[in-house]
Amino acid sequence: MATSLNNEEFATKVAGIFDTKEQADDAFSSLCEDREFEQSNIEIISAHDQRFDEKIEPEDKNIGKTLLKTHLLFGVLGLGVGLIISSVFLFIDVEFMQSFVLETYAGVSTICIFIALLVAGFVSIRPDHDPLINEVRKATRSGKWVLVVHTDSHKKGDKAKELIKPFATNVTATF
Asked: Is the pTM of this model over 0.90?
């Protein structure tokens, strides 16, 4: 059984930065000619666009589902690990455990849940998106055009990079 922690349909993003609208349009046309890319998954962000964030991360609800799903899953796993560690302490006759069974279970489980939730936060906030978002922000503020491609696989992301590179001054992608 395969379980995906990410609920986003198009989690991989590629952004090309262009000096002119014509270059961005040429890259857009190049991507639209390829059958792997749908026009609805390609966004052109104009220079000085103040609402570029909606074009980079259009799946707000799915990101929220990912946050909830990872935190619930990792929290339960943390509880399980905490209970297992506490049980090991009980069975190997740790003296402190014999006197304070309930307190040890509660303390170790709490620490394990806390660590698991920290890991869930790190996994779900997608730190790989920060460099792309920062590049787009910097480009739009400096009067450049940006083309963002949303793909469902790294293979398509690599192909999008290849198609955009001849027209772009810079290409950035998520993992």
From this structure: no
